[in-house]
Amino acid sequence: MKGIRQLAEHLQISTGTVSRALNGKADVNAETRRRVLEAAETLGYVPNQAGRSLRQGRSRTIGLMLSHDSMVGGASDTFFPLVINGLQEALSVHSLDLILLLCQRGEAPDDFLRRMVAQRIVDAMVISSTRLDDPRFPFLNKAGMPFVSLGRSHSATADNRWVDLDFEGIAERAVERLYQHGHRKIAVAAPDTDVQLAELFLDGYRRGLAHCGLDYDPDLVFRAEAHEQGGYAVGQRIIGLRNRPTAILLNAEMMSVGLYRSFGEAGLQPGRDLAIIAERESPVGRFLLPRLTCFRLDPIAVGQMLGKMLLSQLPAFADLYSDVPTTKIWPMELVEGESDPPPEKQSGLL
Amino acid sequence: MKGIRQLAEHLQISTGTVSRALNGKADVNAETRRRVLEAAETLGYVPNQAGRSLRQGRSRTIGLMLSHDSMVGGASDTFFPLVINGLQEALSVHSLDLILLLCQRGEAPDDFLRRMVAQRIVDAMVISSTRLDDPRFPFLNKAGMPFVSLGRSHSATADNRWVDLDFEGIAERAVERLYQHGHRKIAVAAPDTDVQLAELFLDGYRRGLAHCGLDYDPDLVFRAEAHEQGGYAVGQRIIGLRNRPTAILLNAEMMSVGLYRSFGEAGLQPGRDLAIIAERESPVGRFLLPRLTCFRLDPIAVGQMLGKMLLSQLPAFADLYSDVPTTKIWPMELVEGESDPPPEKQSGLL
DNA sequence: CTGAAAGCGCTTACAG
DNA sequence: CTGAAAGCGCTTACAG
Fold it and tell me: How confident is the model at residue A117 (pLDDT cuts 50, 70, 90)?
């Protein structure tokens, strides 16, 4: 079935009536509507999106911009797909489709976004992998494109909506927990880039130290990339120290795989010889030996929240979502593993 | 800048000329073209996609359909993002955009595809996660939507284009390698679903056994899901056996994380107590201890090949890509790790 | 409740 | 080399 015109001719009625019947407008005869829906179903008619978008001035499609890094890093493994699921759930309530726009490795994220927005393929955007200073915020604000962000930024205005994980809080709590376990020399690993989470993670770390009356020692901050290789490098550096830290916080759980290996190679045991707490629960961390102590959250709920925040930004749905918070720092719950045993167990591990 | 009409008025020329200048048509005065391009640049004009698509009958957008499983499973970790990069590289040569369409958990992939195709948002599709019997092939063939597939299927016709990994070949070679290392009781893990790769992997396994003169023993085939938890379950079952296999092939490298843990918990050493070869190289496998022996391929090249195959299916570009193969079984190269030590080293590991 | 008509923004034969 | 006009498929005031 080609178009609405053919469908209308087949039914011997006007395209306008077909359109109204299909779009659930009130003023259509019940029997007419039934005939139209039945014919559309049997003939497999689905409205051409381009015609619809052009006429309505909107596409009913939401774009989620992902960077190559957010897919390849440890974050990919189950986090993003589940966030996306939650997002789709929230949007599908209003028949909005979600498409994923993957910024190529090498392409500047800002240019990429500009292109996508200018083409008007999507009515609204979800952005992620925010940076401290992120030009996408002023750009989207200026372009008048509704959006929400997974991640904070200094560039966000009071009108912008975002959800972010409580990186600060978990770093603080991890330090306090390690302190209670008897640790006095607690290190931290964080990425050496301008991603927002690095700053937050370190802020929380410092705050935790302060609470415990420990001094901040810049030598205990290990800058490394948030993946296996980065964790391996951190492990190597720690092993080489005269005066090793007895515990470490990792900002990404995939780092632990490399850290475990470096310790294993050196005949040391992660957990016993270095207590480890990592940022986010994942299947890998759950099956490492020792099992990783980490922080849990519900990524689907994060996605649903993002979806609702986005809907609150769309004129067509704003009134239905007026009670949605404007920003949300998502709490995370500690999941006790085996990688930060309390002092009395530290020698008896395995 | 709103539309082409405003741009034309600003330049005091017709919209037709603006359009021709912008689209690089030959018969435009050089100076006119320069003025148009400059004005478009400074005023930030980009053509409205809906208008373009409607008029041209095509969107210059390619859809990549991903299933939730393909993102969440181990396959996600670096494989898909890199394939996507290669795909985008190939398509960007002709200014074709790629959008990712993620089939929700729970939504039937066939219905999802039907909806996407009917809406005509994309000109062509890339599908993945093929099954033995996959209705998407006849559907796309019937709908006349050009497509390529990452993965074989019995449902593919001779006209369909696909790239698939050489699951059969690697399973066969892995068995032969393990046989040469002295193993006579070689197990295999494969998913218990109708994904195409399960069948191929088992076919190769059987062929390898036959080459080595070993009997096929169904008790050595462990059906399990292709992730950490699945690998853990396989490990548990092996440990419980009176007469354990001395080696195993895993169809997914993420399984090894769980398998390693189950062995570690039982005081056994992966590698020494069970030789392991897994399907695909990944950062996790590289940093496990012992390092995983596995098979390597270049996912970017796979993506580029898929892109070229797809272009060969599009009328506008077919003649430029007439030399692209119609199907390709992608070879993989063994990467020697520490998880399948030759016999003389098996006792001295670690 | 339905039909006829306009028009969304673009590209492209066609005429000159 | 450029302009005027048609039309892609749809939705939606408007008239009846």
Answer: confident
